[in-house]
TrEMBL record:
<dbReference type="InterPro" id="IPR050080">
    <property type="entry name" value="RNase_PH"/>
</dbReference>
<dbReference type="InterPro" id="IPR015847">
    <property type="entry name" value="ExoRNase_PH_dom2"/>
</dbReference>
<keyword id="KW-0698">rRNA processing</keyword>
<keyword id="KW-0819">tRNA processing</keyword>
<dbReference type="InterPro" id="IPR002381">
    <property type="entry name" value="RNase_PH_bac-type"/>
</dbReference>
<keyword id="KW-0820">tRNA-binding</keyword>
<feature type="binding site">
    <location>
        <begin position="124"/>
        <end position="126"/>
    </location>
    <ligand>
        <name>phosphate</name>
    </ligand>
</feature>
<dbReference type="InterPro" id="IPR001247">
    <property type="entry name" value="ExoRNase_PH_dom1"/>
</dbReference>
<dbReference type="GO" id="GO:0000175">
    <property type="term" value="F:3'-5'-RNA exonuclease activity"/>
</dbReference>
<feature type="domain" description="Exoribonuclease phosphorolytic">
    <location>
        <begin position="10"/>
        <end position="140"/>
    </location>
</feature>
<dbReference type="GO" id="GO:0031125">
    <property type="term" value="P:rRNA 3'-end processing"/>
</dbReference>
<feature type="binding site">
    <location>
        <position position="86"/>
    </location>
    <ligand>
        <name>phosphate</name>
    </ligand>
</feature>
<dbReference type="InterPro" id="IPR027408">
    <property type="entry name" value="PNPase/RNase_PH_dom_sf"/>
</dbReference>
<dbReference type="GO" id="GO:0000049">
    <property type="term" value="F:tRNA binding"/>
</dbReference>
<keyword id="KW-0694">RNA-binding</keyword>
<comment type="subunit">
    <text>Homohexameric ring arranged as a trimer of dimers.</text>
</comment>
<dbReference type="Pfam" id="PF03725">
    <property type="entry name" value="RNase_PH_C"/>
</dbReference>
Amino acid sequence: MRPSGRALDQLRTVSIETGVSLHAEGSCLIRIGNTHVLCTASIEDKPPPFLRNSGMGWVTAEYGMLPRSTHTRSRREAASGKQSGRTQEIQRLIGRSLRAVVDRQALGERQITVDCDVIQADGGTRCAAITGGWVALRIAMNRLMAKGLVTGDPLLDHVAAVSCGIYAGQPVLDLDYDEDSAAGTDGNFVITGKGKLVEIQASAEGAPFSTEDLATLMGLGLQGTAALIAAQKEAIG
């Protein structure tokens, strides 16, 4: 039995509220169970220096956790003067995941930065950030198209992410904190709307896992991201 009482292949309750930021070109608040992440997309009409005069744009991401998003207060990284290795790894993952479904030539010489701020954490924050980050990016892209600033749609497909793992000897979908902290195997699956893989992060926290276990978790990941993409479609209308 899972601590939450969910079935092995059951996602937590998902909600995506759009238009939550007055100033951002795209925004949403994604809630997956008790994990809540604010995602905003900001458009700059110039690319990063390494892409100047290339005709191509760029999508990048930044990620952070508010001090009391977890059980105990954590110090703001700005106060220490540097980001943790975890933060850097997660924001690079978010950026890679979003760029995987962007036609950077069609975007033109501009940059979109997707900021993902964790308001409340209960496991799966990087997955929620990717899933919500895509919604914020979609809204920003819609704004570019509505203004006639791009030719065609630079966003080629959906992308979403979900955690899967082995908890108490059973493969489970969408781990919350209680499960994640005790899982024997923990994985994150980033998958497009067409069912193509962007990234798989999986590791044994105790005993090694088998290729059969990985295949089972892959199946759960496909099921979970399909449901999350359905939530994305509902959110953007």
